[in-house]
Amino acid sequence: MAAKSLARFVVSRISTPASNKAFLNNPNIKFYSVQKNFEFIKTHKAGARNNVGVITLNRPKALNALCNGLMQEVADALDVFEKDNDVGAIIITGSEKAFAAGADIKEMQNNTYSQCVRGNFLAHWNRVSESVKPVIAAVNGYALGGGCELAMMCDIIYAGENAKFGQPEILIGTIPGAGGTQRLTRVVGKSKAMEMVLTGDQVPAHEAEKMGLVSKVFPVEKLMDETVKLAEKIAKNSHLVNGMCKESVNTAYETTLREGLHFEKRMFHGTFATKDRKEGMTAFIEKRAPNFTNE
């Protein structure tokens, strides 16, 4: 039986979207299989240089509700892609109907407080935010509850025009538990975050872009093409320096300005210990493309 997600409580009816055929049949997008079998997700590598890892949430009957098994598989897939020296950026996406329509409510319905505390419930969901490599969320359809939180764990969010974001946990007697009250507040500010988490209202893609929650919005059929282009552009950089830059931005997000400036300066100094920094500056002076070795 399909799991009952939060979206099934909030959304009574969802229309069938267009298919992904335009993306799958695009001759400019190359796919490479990843040798690992999963139950709740699919993985492959995309891009002309075989340098983009793609994780597709795959529980269509449950609107990609985030069960423990799915989130563990996402963590496992991240492990695989992080160990792959060719992969420079990772995309997490769902279907055109739902990126992820919430956590699996049926799975957690009978949890007790003591069970949650003793088991540190949802702790392993943080794996996405801890990825060393840049992670991009490509969001079509519903990103509600845990789905919105999963998107916010990523470094960049691209959205299709049909995307809707929300934290409707209040409607079923609980609160967000995987960053919905924390990351959302830092991104959109206290007033808007309060409005979203206290009403459970959904925010359409273009409004989410104006709020700063989403970086860019595209037509549904172009979302994955544009996300792969972004990932390829990022993956062309030094993977080592990408990680350093990502860590520096996250430090700004999580600490004071004084601490962040100090961290940034030391990280900047640290790039001078890398071969890629020297190669990048040398290539610039010599007016040629750099050949980064991630060292």
Automatic annotation (TrEMBL):
Pfam families named among the record's database cross-references: ECH_1 (PF00378)
Entry GO terms, CC: mitochondrial matrix; mitochondrion
Protein localization: Mitochondrion matrix
Pathway field: Lipid metabolism
InterPro entries recorded: ClpP/crotonase-like_dom_sf, Enoyl-CoA_hyd/isom_CS, Enoyl-CoA_hydra/iso, Enoyl-CoA_hydra_C
Main location per the UniProt record: mitochondrion
GO molecular function ontology, one term from the record: enoyl-CoA hydratase activity
Record note on quaternary structure: Homohexamer; dimer of trimers.
Record keyword Lipid metabolism present: yes
Protein name: Enoyl-CoA hydratase, mitochondrial
Swiss-Prot/TrEMBL catalytic activity: 3-hydroxyisovaleryl-CoA = 3-methylbut-2-enoyl-CoA + H2O; 3-hydroxypropanoyl-CoA = acryloyl-CoA + H2O; (3E)-hexenoyl-CoA = (2E)-hexenoyl-CoA; 2-methylpropenoyl-CoA + H2O = (S)-3-hydroxyisobutanoyl-CoA
CDD domains: crotonase-like
Keywords: Acetylation, Fatty acid metabolism, Isomerase, Lipid metabolism, Lyase, Mitochondrion, Transit peptide
Protein family per UniProt: Belongs to the enoyl-CoA hydratase/isomerase family.
GO biological process, any: fatty acid beta-oxidation
EC code: 4.2.1.17, 5.3.3.8
Record bears the keyword Lipid metabolism: yes
Organism: Tribolium castaneum (Red flour beetle)
